[in-house]
Every structure is written in structure tokens, then in C-alpha cells.
Design a protein that fits this description.
By secondary structure, this protein is of the alpha/beta class. The chain is 32% helix and 17% strand. The chain has two domains: 2-91 and 278-296, Rossmann fold (3-Layer(aba) Sandwich), CATH 3.40.50; 93-270, NAD(P)-binding Rossmann-like Domain (Rossmann fold), CATH 3.40.50.720. It is elongated and about 70 Å long. The protein binds NADP nicotinamide-adenine-dinucleotide phosphate. NADP nicotinamide-adenine-dinucleotide phosphate binds at residues 71-72, 90, 94, 141-146, 164-166, 195-199, 201-202, 223-225, 249-250, 273, 275-276, 310.
């Protein structure tokens, strides 16, 4: 019997536990899933969200892995009590959701939709947008989500570059890495998409100096993490007209506080961390596959590299 602790806000249980049971059953894995634990030493796996009740993982001395329900693990990686293998959430539903968010918001800015959709009789001065092939988009972060987004944009014909820590080769995407690669990615980006994880190295990666490297009139789309951008520097770059717009899905404090200047800034679009949610049915399959691997002694999927922080 595989003992599983499910540690997440109460509202998650009804959505996640039934498909996880079903996926484990489909592998023939006999299991028990509990939301409260009286004997931590018996627990084999902990499925958890960073906002769940378990914050001290040290009593779970026999746990073979901690499986995060979230893709971003910045709230777990620094937890000194979490010494078990940490597996982050990657699944096709989450990737598809992010690709849709990114392509939708890139197309909004590329086509100038806000300017062209009129409700009143307009001054008839059409400004024809360029074709996608004439629009340079850069994607910072070429992991599960960045790579799929970059490929989708390239598939629409955009002139796409991507930047990552390790060098990559992706058909149709100019792949960059290192400090020079970042300079090039920023310098060409009429539209910049942030899909980096939040780590010590990426926090405030878009500071005033790097924002200034973007071409005048550039647009930023950030579904990665709020602290990737220096908020004050972003506001200053928008206010002085260097940047045209920022579409932000993630923030330093969430929900975004009511008095935050982002809410009412005419060149900022706020979306409430909806770029891509974890879809329970898709998540259940990857969770069950990792538990199957753990039981079979096979390497886990999507294991976090603690030294890199993601
Ligand atoms: P991932 O697979 O871990 O990919 C991360 C990418 O960032 C990799 O390409 C990695 O480079 C690159 N990277 C990391 N540190 C770097 C550095 N210092 N310099 C250059 N490149 C660096 O992550 P993912 O699944 O694509 O997710 C990305 C982030 O999206 C998550 O961490 C999360 O914060 C965010 N997210 C947001 C939502 C939402 O709804 N808004 C939903 C899901 C995820 P390598 O390829 O060389 O390792």
C-alpha cells in the first residue's frame, strides 16, 4: 500500500484527489491518499502546494519524493526541511494553456488590437500592422513553457529568439544564452515574453539598465514571476515613453494590492495569475507516472535542481 499525503488548501482536494486516484489505479498502484497525517514516518509521497499546511518536511523521514502541484517552486527550494527529491509540475495542459496566453497577448500587441477595435465612429486612419515575419519577439526562458511558446510564435511566422541558461537548438527559433545572448535578446525584442523561473539569478533581471536595452516602444508580457521585473524601473520606463505597454500576470504580492499603481496605469494590463493553471486531469497523470517511477526505482520526471533553484 503506497501512503500519500495530500497537502494543499482544502478547496484543492475535491478537484485533484479523484483524478489522482484514477490515474494510480490505471497503473495498478494500490494506494491510500490522506489529507491529514498522524504518522509521518509512514508517508511514501507528499503531493503538495506551497500554500498547503505542510511546511516542515523533516518528520517525513521515509518519503521518496515531494510532488509540487505548481510549476514554480521558489517557495519550496529554500525550505531547509525539504530534503526529499522535489518534483515540479509540468504537464501538457499547463503548457497548452501558457501557449494560448502568450500567443493571444503577443497577437494583441502585434496587431494593435486596442487601437483598431473601435466602438465609436473613428477617424478613418488605418495603420496596417506589419506581418508577423516583420515582428521580432524574444522569449526569456526556454523550458517547458518558454520553448513551446517560442515554437508556437515561430509557427505563426514571428521572428523569434529565445534565451536560456544552457545553449539550445530549437527549429525556427534563434537560441541564445549567456550574458551576450541576453543583450542580443533584449536589444531585438519588440515584444518580450518572460518565462523564467524566480531564482537568485533571475530576480530583478529586468532592472532599469536592461529595460533601457529594449527598443523604444517595446512591449513586455510577463507570465513568469513578478519579481523578475523591478516594478519601479518598469513604471519609470513606461512613463518616459521608452516602453509602450506591459501585460503582467504575476506580481511580487498576489493578489495585487488594491492601491498598487499597476492597476490604473494606462499602459499596463493586469491579468490575475491566470496565464496557465494546473489542470487536475493532466496533473494527475504526471503525478501517478512519477509515483510509478518511484516505486520501480526509475528516475523521476521534472526533478528540481536545488543548486540552480528551479
Ligand atoms: P522550466 O522548464 O524550469 O524552464 C525554465 C527556463 O528558464 C529554462 O530554459 C532555463 O534554462 C531558464 N533559466 C533559468 N534560470 C536562468 C538563468 N539564470 N539565465 C537564463 N535562463 C535561465 O520552467 P517552465 O515550466 O517553463 O516554467 C517557467 C516559469 O513559468 C515557472 O517557473 C513559473 O514561475 C511560471 N509559471 C507561471 C504560470 C502562470 O499561470 N502565470 C503558470 C506556470 C508557470 P535551461 O533550459 O538552460 O535550464
Amino acid at each position: 500500500m503506497i501512503e500519500i499525503l495530500f497537502s494543499a488548501p482544502e478547496s484543492y482536494g475535491g478537484k485533484y484527489i479523484p483524478p489522482i486516484r484514477e490515474a494510480l489505479d490505471s497503473f495498478g498502484l494500490a494506494h491510500r491518499i490522506e489529507t491529514e497525517c498522524s504518522d509521518p514516518e509512514r508517508v511514501d509521497y507528499i503531493i503538495c502546494a506551497p500554500n498547503g499546511p505542510v511546511t516542515d518536511f523533516s518528520p517525513f523521514t521515509h518519503a521518496k519524493a515531494v510532488l509540487s502541484l505548481w510549476a514554480g517552486v521558489e517557495r519550496f527550494v529554500d525550505n531547509p526541511s525539504l530534503t526529499q527529491p522535489l518534483l515540479r509540475m509540468v504537464n501538457p495542459g499547463m503548457t497548452a494553456g501558457m501557449v494560448e496566453y502568450v500567443t493571444g497577448h503577443v497577437l494583441r500587441h502585434h496587431l494593435g488590437m486596442d487601437a483598431h477595435i473601435r466602438r465609436e465612429k473613428p477617424e478613418w486612419q488605418p495603420k496596417i500592422p506589419p506581418l508577423a515575419s516583420e515582428r521580432r519577439v524574444s522569449v526569456l526562458g526556454l523550458g517547458a513553457l518558454g520553448q513551446a511558446s517560442a515554437q508556437a510564435l515561430a509557427g505563426l511566422g514571428f521572428d523569434v529568439a529565445g534565451w536560456s541558461r544552457s545553449p539550445k537548438s530549437i527549429a525556427g527559433v534563434r537560441c541564445l544564452s549567456g550574458a551576450n545572448g541576453l543583450e542580443e535578446a533584449l536589444g531585438r525584442a519588440e515584444i518580450l515574453v518572460l518565462l523564467l523561473p524566480l531564482t537568485v539569478e533571475t530576480e530583478n533581471i529586468l532592472d532599469a539598465a536592461r529595460l533601457a536595452r529594449l527598443p523604444e516602444g517595446a512591449v513586455i508580457i510577463n507570465p513568469g514571476r513578478g519579481p523578475l521585473i523591478d516594478d519601479e524601473a518598469l513604471l519609470a520606463a513606461l512613463d518616459r515613453g521608452h516602453l509602450a505597454h506591459a501585460t503582467l500576470d504575476v506580481f511580487r504580492t498576489e493578489p495585487l494590492p488594491g492601491a498598487h499603481p499597476f492597476w490604473h496605469h494606462p499602459q499596463i494590463t493586469v491579468t490575475p495569475h491566470i496565464a496557465s493553471d494546473t489542470r487536475p486531469a493532466h496533473a494527475a497523470r504526471v503525478i501517478a507516472e512519477n509515483i510509478r517511477r518511484g516505486e520501480a526505482g526509475e528516475p523521476f520526471l521534472h526533478q528540481v535542481d536545488r543548486s540552480a533553484g528551479y
